[in-house]
Write a structure and sequence with these properties.
Layout lengths: L13 H22 L10 H24 L4 H18 L10 H7 L4 H21 L5 H19 L3 H21 L8 H22 L6 H6 L1 H16 L12 H8 L9 H29 L4 H23 L5 H4 L1
Helix pairs in contact: 1-2, 1-7, 1-8, 2-3, 2-8, 3-5, 5-8, 5-10, 6-7, 6-8, 6-12, 7-8, 11-12
Amino acid sequence: MPQRFHAGHVPRLGGIAMIAACTAGWCWIVGAERFLAIPNQIRLPYGMAVAWWSVATIAVAGGVAEDLTHRLGASARLAFTIIAGAVATWLLGLSIPSLGIAALQSAWSATPWPGIALAIFAVAGLPHAFNLIDGYNGLAGLVALICCFALAYVSLLAGDRQLAGTMMVLAGATAGFLVWNYPRGLIFAGDGGAYLWGAVIAVASIQLVQRYPLVSPWFPVLLLIYPVWETIFSIWRKLIRGQSPGVADALHFHQLIYRRIVRGVFDDDEARRMLMRNNRTSPYLWGFTVLTVIPAVLFWSNTPMLIFFTALFVVSYVWAYVSIVRFKVPRWLRH
């Protein structure tokens, strides 16, 4: 309830719709050329498609259970995503081979376990990061869509049609969802949708770095730094206030923008006024996301530049957050 910024009752089953769309899309990639003689040049192996679907379904199952019952606690949902991460490392052989820092490489590569553990952590954590930013119509969905396009683009640059095709299927499912989600808010992604985005994008990011050493491990870090840093900052903010990180509040970055920056909505109907303010919040964060995606795509193989822009985002985020809290928002940002 602290994070409810809409009127009335809206279905939270967008995750079910998107996993159904992804299932159809991945089946088409696998079967179109094999069974229907329709060439697509992707050549996604059947076993790999089943592995992708299994990981996504496990993650989505925990979210959908919460969407339907509202009784699945944060620990139980985290258990689902951890299982999804473990299954991903088992079926797809996921591991993060490098941190992109030469001084740490010898220690990192001495044993495979750190890379495997970090891969599980990434697949388990990113779904919850997307869930954290899923607060307003179109916000998390468009962030996920932009990330899918960026991953597909770099995958094609590396010559990997399998990853590009897999991400374009998720992009298509997300685009279909956004037709109903933004701006009218007729359906929400729910935890299931956020977990689908996080799990699939995390697996694709790790596989891209794992398959192609030219792709810097900091490319997905910068690409996804907005939901990742929002999660880290929120955990730190709650801990210093003596709260559990699993307790919901209304002090996330997008919620502050909604409360203190989005203005000028004076419609007489309260529900419509809330909807209009909801819709006007997301573009602020879309712009914030684009400012990280553009350098990530431009410098996808340049680790020092990626680290620089990652640090720049962190500094900019903290500055913007503190400015909003202290009512020192620049005049141009209000307009």
